[in-house]
Amino acid sequence: MPFYNRIYGVIFLLFVFFGCSVSKSEHDVVPLPPNRAKNVILLIGDGMGLAQITAAMYNNGNHLSLEKFPVVGFHKSYSANDLITDSAAGATAFSCGVKTYNNAIGLSKDSLACKTILEEAEERGLATGLVATSTIVHATPAAFIAHQKLRVLYENIASDMLNVDVDLLIGGGKKYFDRRENDQRDLYQELKDKGYRVYDYSTRPLEEIIPDKKRNLVYFTADNLPLPVSAGRTYLPIASNLATNFLAKRSENGFFLMIEGSQIDWAGHANEGELLVSEMLDFDKAINKVLDFARKRDDTLVIVTADHETGGMSINQGSVMGELKYGFTSNAHTGTLIPVFAYGPGAALFSGIYENTAIHDKIRKAFGFNTPILPKANSN
Ligand code: MG
Ligand code: ZN
């Protein structure tokens, strides 16, 4: 008798547990579409570790767009010469699939140019784009399109950008194109001469740009560094929406797009929790725009991750939901494992724990760049 009582008790508890968890779930997990990815969108929250994600969630009614992703994994962020990576080596791991030294942009650890996923996508006839809330020549976007020994060689990085037929660039740093110190080139004009439509913050707001699907597009959001969101920057979700819809029309073969929430890292360096949360929530809006695009179709893989954590952030005792007490152990980057979120065809590849370089390899696999036909992705 006690045995049966126990069994009934367990069944009852299971029913209560699963019954509750289903009925309480506000954010349904979206099932994975089975086919290979025609489009891949990689969103990088620079400096976004688990505490940053948690802080944003608990300051946003206990909700983030990241909860909509069915697959979660972790990557190991260390670089070739330092357990603590910088953003240049971190982004090069994603773009080229190689560990390199800190400060290197699109180079192997032997300082040889490596082919980036953006360059390979271009070669294979896909459309490509980069969107950032830093300058467009800053380390994270730069590592997808440029090859330089030092990340601070901004004018060289800008020149490299003209060597690739990239379809879309949105970010700050106009001055590295049109008022250069090391040469007399006017890359703003050169882009126009190449057939690009080129706009900037001083000519018209991004909201008013109607992209021409027959022409590449560059939009400079600032002369140098764009504002933080707390000072009025609003363009990241708008740019993300524009980028997905524009690139989808640019090529029948699909597209590769990288979108960076650049300033999460800067708030981490400054140890400013509130600033950090505002940047995180802006980035989350961009994620939501991208998911809106991807959920209407079955051919788009969306990946969200960070290059590294910044600040050694913690959420400390005395915190309550919506009112958190932060701690920071550092003004610099740290070495913790970094979460990876994936949605769409090929998403199952991203579960587990792997090197940061594997993100590049998994994207290639999802695109079917390794083999002519990609085997069906496992649903998860
Ligand atoms: Mg960055
Ligand atoms: Zn940083």
In summary, what is this structure?
By secondary structure, the chain is an alpha/beta fold. Helices cover 34% and strands 18% of the residues.
| CATH topology-level fold name | Alkaline Phosphatase, subunit A
Helical residues, percent: 25-40%
Q: Measured on Cα atoms, how large is the radius of gyration?
A: 21 Å
Give the assembly state of these chains. Answer: single chain
What is the class in the CATH system?
A: Alpha Beta
Largest sheet: 10 strands, mixed
Provide a count of the helices.
12
Uncertain ranges? 1-26, 372-380
Order of helices and strands: HEHEHHEHHEHHEEHEHHEEEEEEEH
**Residue fraction in strands:** 15-25%
Gap between N and C termini: 40 Å
Q: Tell me the domain tally.
A: 1
Class per helix and strand makeup = alpha/beta
Instruction: Count the beta strands.
Output: 14
Shape: globular
**Residue-averaged pLDDT, rounded?**
91
The CATH architecture classification is 3-Layer(aba) Sandwich
CATH superfamily membership, which one? Alkaline Phosphatase, subunit A
The small molecules bound here are: magnesium ion, zinc ion
Biggest sheet: strands side by side, in what order?
5-6-4-3-7-1-8-13-2-14
